[in-house]
Amino acid sequence: MIALDIALDIVIIALLAAGTAFVAVGTVGLLRFPDLATRLHAVAKADNLGLGLIVAALVVHVLREASAPDDPAGWGVALKLLLIWLLALLGTAANSHLLAVPPPGKTDGKGKERGEGGRR
Q1: Other residues' Cβ atoms within 10 Å of the Cβ of residue 18
Q2: Would the pLDDT of 106 be above 80?
Q3: Neighbours of 75 (CB within 10 A)
Q4: Cross-strand bridge partners of residue 113
Q5: Which pTM does this prediction carry?
Q6: What is the three-class DSSP state of 84?
Q7: What angle do CA 93, 50, 37 make, to 5 degrees?
Q8: Residue 120 has pLDDT above 80, yes or no
Q9: Which of 16, 92, 95, 91 is nearest to 52 (CA)?
Q10: First to last CA, the chain
């Protein structure tokens, strides 16, 4: 039983370290990249992956600390954590889209209005 606890501690620490590293790299990308599109890409991808790894570590911790393997309270907290991650994914996608696409009637800097000329 002690070996399992040590192994789970190692998994939790590894997930937290990896998640923190991805969030840090996303923040560096936000500060270093030159234009809005690359900044949004760095933040959206790296931070969502980092948050997912951190949530995975928290889920492992919550389920390990539950009083029994079939404890509904532990599974409820794990489900809430996954829901938080899902909402963060959806929010990041919506925010990135709203920031990257110019409003109707505005130009994109190349003289084209929104909706002209295919993909961006």
Answers
A1: 17
A2: no
A3: 15
A4: 107
A5: 0.78
A6: helix
A7: 40
A8: no
A9: 16
A10: 55
